[in-house]
Amino acid sequence: MRLTFSEEQIKQEKNKIYLEEDELLLEGEYLEGEGKRYVISGIATIEGERYHDFQIEFELFQPPKGETVEAILAEEWDWYDFLC
Prior knowledge:
The protein is mainly beta. The protein has two helices and six strands, in the order E-H-E-E-E-E-H-E. The protein has helices spanning 7-11, 69-74, and strands at residues 2-4, 16-19, 24-34, 37-46, 49-60, 77-82. Strands 1, 2, 3, 4, 5 and 6 form a six-stranded antiparallel sheet that branches.
């Protein structure tokens, strides 16, 4: 399944994910996956530098309550890893 962030979600900044321990801000463009494992793709900002086509793979502790961006991102992540 592939979900693209809508213009409204981007305006409301629902596409922005901040990973404090890595000091990384990801502006998601789309999300792919199913079950508990997903990949979010977008533009990452690390120490003031922007990286396009950046991907983060993550797994949720439990499956989301729905197949929407909001439902998936509302769940707590078990782990994550940078793919690009």
